[in-house]
């Protein structure tokens, strides 16, 4: 669960105390190898108090002062053990992570298990922002930590740090953990609501008009992605609101979304527009295919197909 033993050079490598050991794929159990302890500011002041009390006892040869100094020192050293036990024995593993769009918050999920009969009252769990949790004896708890997803592609998990100053705040015990875990970030959908391509352009460049062979069926409320030429302008002019003409058989036509013909100032703008069309087409119940340089996904619909298309956009031009 924790891997093999470490050599002396690896054991005292400074990076172990800051970012942890090599990333692990499975669960990690915290033991003496992974838990580090140092006095806090309050702990150093407590040491100064002990020295001062013992100095007074030495100068005035006061037995009560000696007793107080030794009592404080015993509390100080016993606290080290309790601080270590606040983290020792915990089992931590990475959970399932859901893909997100660029610009959103990616959630990294971690499962913490307390196998012993000791309560863990104050544990700080942090990737970038700390979150304090409490674990009862035998309890398993899932913790979700947010990280900004700034660009598309794979977002690797940062170092997860568990820490505690329990029980008196004199020591801080911490354990930096690294997991072989990542979140897929889709391109950010374009904000501009452009209609779908006017024709269903297939791989051969031949298209079929969306209205060809279809009969007028009726009107429906305008939805994002409806072609501009299907808008019923007469109804809009009469103040009846924005509606789209509906044709029998139109919903069964296959929509091809082609990177080469997608408008955009650069590659990221094109991918953002394709991402927007994919989301709108799925919501509209359309069958759609995706064409990228070197990638072709046949027309289909559904959550699995939508995720496959969005994943292709996320990893386009990047090393997976």
Can I get a quick summary?
The chain crosses the membrane at residues 43-60, 66-84. The protein has 320 residues and is an alpha+beta fold.
Structural write-up:
It comes from Methylomonas subterranea. This is DUF58 domain-containing protein. Keywords: Membrane, Transmembrane, Transmembrane helix. The protein is built from seven helices and 17 strands. With 320 residues, the chain is an alpha+beta fold. It folds into two domains: 177 residues, no CATH class; 101 residues, no CATH class. The strands form five sheets. A five-stranded antiparallel sheet has the order 2-11-10-6-7. Strands 1-3-5-8 form a four-stranded antiparallel sheet, with no helix packed on it. A hairpin with a 6-residue loop joins strand 10 and strand 11.
Structural class: alpha+beta
**Helical content class:** 25-40%
- Report the mean per-residue pLDDT as an integer: 86
The termini sit apart by 27 Å
Query: How many discrete domains?
Result: 2
**Low-confidence blocks of residues:** 204-213
**Computed CA radius of gyration, to the nearest angstrom:** 31 Å
Oligomer kind:
single chain
The helix/strand series, from N terminus to C terminus, equals HHEEHHEEEEEEEEEEEHEEHEEH
Helical stretch tally: 7
Strand content: 25-35%
Kindly report the spatial arrangement of strands forming the biggest sheet. Answer: 2-11-10-6-7
Overall shape: it is: elongated
Number of strands: 17
Tell me about the biggest sheet?
Answer: 5 strands, antiparallel
């Amino acid at each position: 669960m924790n891997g093999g033993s470490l050599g002396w050079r690896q054991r005292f490598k400074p990076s172990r105390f800051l970012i942890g050991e090599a990333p692990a794929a499975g669960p990690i159990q915290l033991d003496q190898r992974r838990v580090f302890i140092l006095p806090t500011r309050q702990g150093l002041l407590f040491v100064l108090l002990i020295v001062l009390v013992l100095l007074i006892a030495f100068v005035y040869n006061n037995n009560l002062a000696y007793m107080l100094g030794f009592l404080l020192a015993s509390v100080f050293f016993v606290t080290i053990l309790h601080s270590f036990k606040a983290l020792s024995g915990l089992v931590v593993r990475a959970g399932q992570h859901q893909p997100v769009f660029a610009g959103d918050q990616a959630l990294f999920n971690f499962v913490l298990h307390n196998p012993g009969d000791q309560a863990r009252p104050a544990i700080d769990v942090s990737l970038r922002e700390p979150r304090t949790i409490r674990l009862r004896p035998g309890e398993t708890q899932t913790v979700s930590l947010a990280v900004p997803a700034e660009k598309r592609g794979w977002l690797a998990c940062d170092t997860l740090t568990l820490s505690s100053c329990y029980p008196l705040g004199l020591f801080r015990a911490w354990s930096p953990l690294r997991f072989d875990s990542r979140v897929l970030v889709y391109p950010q959908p374009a904000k501009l609501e452009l209609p779908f391509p006017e024709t269903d352009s297939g791989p051969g460049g031949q298209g079929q008009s969306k209205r060809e062979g279809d009969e007028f069926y009726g009107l429906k409320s305008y939805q994002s992605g409806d072609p501009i030429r299907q808008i019923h302008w007469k109804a809009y002019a009469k103040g009846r609101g924005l509606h789209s003409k509906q044709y029998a058989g139109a919903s069964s036509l296959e929509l091809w979304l082609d990177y080469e013909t997608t408008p955009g100032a650069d590659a990221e703008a094109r991918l953002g527009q394709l991402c927007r069309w994919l989301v709108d087409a799925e919501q509209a119940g359309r069958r759609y295919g995706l064409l990228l340089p070197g990638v072709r996904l046949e027309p289909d619909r559904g959550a699995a197909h939508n995720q496959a298309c969005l994943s292709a956009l996320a990893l386009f031009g990047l090393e997976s």
